[in-house]
Write a structure and sequence with these properties.
Aspartate Aminotransferase, domain 1, four-stranded antiparallel beta sheet
Length: 124
């Protein structure tokens, strides 16, 4: 199971790097989720709501903050999802993010990782 979780984690990290390069996954030795810091000034609740409208269930770090002083961040689970489901979920998160008026990443930042093919309507 550890190998499977590690592979899913790598799929999540590669897809995040491709779709949402301004988001900052935090390093960890493993686990069942990834903590991802959002750019400063992001309205975490707005991201959660936009994701929920697209059917993506995630949690914000504010929910887990004892003092309420955490920066905007998300907890993204991956252990129970297949690779295609992870890729689709991140694509939906990307759609949610850009629907909030966030600028899309540069074309060079959006090169797909090896083995990952995502069809972008804006790419030609």
């Amino acid at each position: 199971m550890r190998l499977r979780y590690a592979e899913r984690r790598e799929t999540l990290l590669a897809t995040l790097k491709h779709e949402l390069p301004d988001w900052r996954p935090q390093p960890s030795a493993g686990g069942l989720y990834v903590l991802v810091e959002l750019p400063a000034g992001t309205d975490e609740a707005a991201v959660l709501a936009a994701a929920a409208r697209r059917g993506v269930g995630i949690e914000g770090v504010a929910l887990h903050s004892y003092r309420g002083d955490s920066g905007p961040a998300l907890l993204l689970g991956h252990a129970h999802l297949s690779d295609p489901a992870i890729e689709r979920g991140v694509k939906l998160l990307s759609d949610a993010w850009f629907s909030l008026g966030s600028p899309p990443p540069s074309r060079s930042a959006r090169r797909p990782p090896r083995g990952l093919e995502v069809n972008h309507a804006t790419d030609s």
